[in-house]
């Protein structure tokens, strides 16, 4: 029987607002960081994603680590990371400040027992951000975790479904989801009985919801699948 792998200790979701002419340069710098972290056992995932619709100069990074100590002592002192920051300091890359959200994983999974046979760049990634009404995040968490268990049991081509509680506030929950394709997401996941029940149950608890579809530009989510 398939087992859920332990959720990561630390998750970071970052939104990068590059100027259009600087996007390629910034992604190139981040690629060297991802290649470095791919070799480190303390980093499980580091993936830069471009939105499938809208402004392609705004991209999102998904990162998971064993601890914040590792991020501080190793990740942020590595040569690729320092090179990135040096180039940032002398260049005008960004149209807005980077948004960094530190999160605690509350349930779900980043990968299954068997890696996907599809390259990461061909998979479909969906990130949904919910803001609960004040005092309702715990209630929402119970609803989403029940849904998460159903997804794990019934959707083999849902490769990741990680439930993240923002450490920056007391209302936000982020779902990091990874599918074999956008068609699978739309025709199987989004139409399931569990999804219908989930929608019905979360509506009274949520003040805001934002969801975006992505493709992986570079990096990795499951190291067994290699680098994108």
Automatic annotation (TrEMBL):
Q: Where are the transmembrane segments?
A: none
Tell me which domain of life the UniProt entry assigns to the organism this sequence originates from. Eukaryota
Coiled-coil region(s): none
Domain ABM positions: 124-214
By its UniProt entry, which InterPro entries does this protein fall under? ABM_dom, Dimeric_a/b-barrel
Q: Which PANTHER family match?
A: BIOSYNTHESIS MONOOXYGENASE, PUTATIVE (AFU_ORTHOLOGUE AFUA_1G12025)-RELATED
Task: Provide the protein name.
Answer: ABM domain-containing protein
